[in-house]
Amino acid sequence: MGGNILLHMATMRPECLEAMILVSATLYFPEQARAIMRQVPAPDEQPAQEWERMRRSHNRGDEQITKLWEWTRDLHDSYEDMNFTPQSLSTVTSPTLIIYGDRDPLYPVEMAVAMYRAIRRSSLCVIPNGGHGPIFGDTASHFTQTALKFFRTPS
User: Fold this and answer.
1) Are 11 and 84 a contacting pair, CB within 8 Å?
2) For strand 122-127 and strand 96-101, is the pairing parallel, antiparallel, or unpaired?
3) Euclidean distance between CA atoms 100 and 128, whole angstroms
4) What CATH number labels 2-27+83-152?
5) How is the chain split into domains, by residue range?
6) Distance between CA atoms of 49 and 142, rounded to whole angstroms?
7) How many Cα atoms occupy the beta-carbon half-sphere of 68 within 13 Å?
8) For residue range 101-138, what is the model confidence (pLDDT) as tens digits?
9) What is the pLDDT of residues 62-111, one digit of tens each?
């Protein structure tokens, strides 16, 4: 949710950001994302291998992991927090790189295009065959090169 936190910052306090990269951020939660959120198993229903995977990437222990799963499940009922409009996004003043996977199961790539059109100083990078968070695994080096080029380009 880092990209969405940045969108909140950029629309509420645009002077606080010099530049930002949004990876798989969303304008709102579409029904396809809400359906996936509703299917997230409760912490006590998560398989052991999923607990182990989460423990490798979340160093604050099982309480943090439990809260993340519960929070994700509860987002399916949230209609106010993620509700960015072209008008609100037009207030963003910082250079913005928008990164999206063209196969994101949560947020369709059309959302990235809408953000790109609404944020005046934005660039769009769509990762072919990329899913949600397409900056890891095989596409990590492409993301790193793109991000470094973005930050090195004078605004």
Assistant:
1) yes
2) parallel
3) 9
4) 3.40.50.1820
5) 2-27+83-152, 35-77
6) 29
7) 14
8) 999 999 999 999 999 999 999 999 999 988 998 888 88
9) 999 999 989 888 888 887 778 899 999 999 999 999 999 999 999 999 99
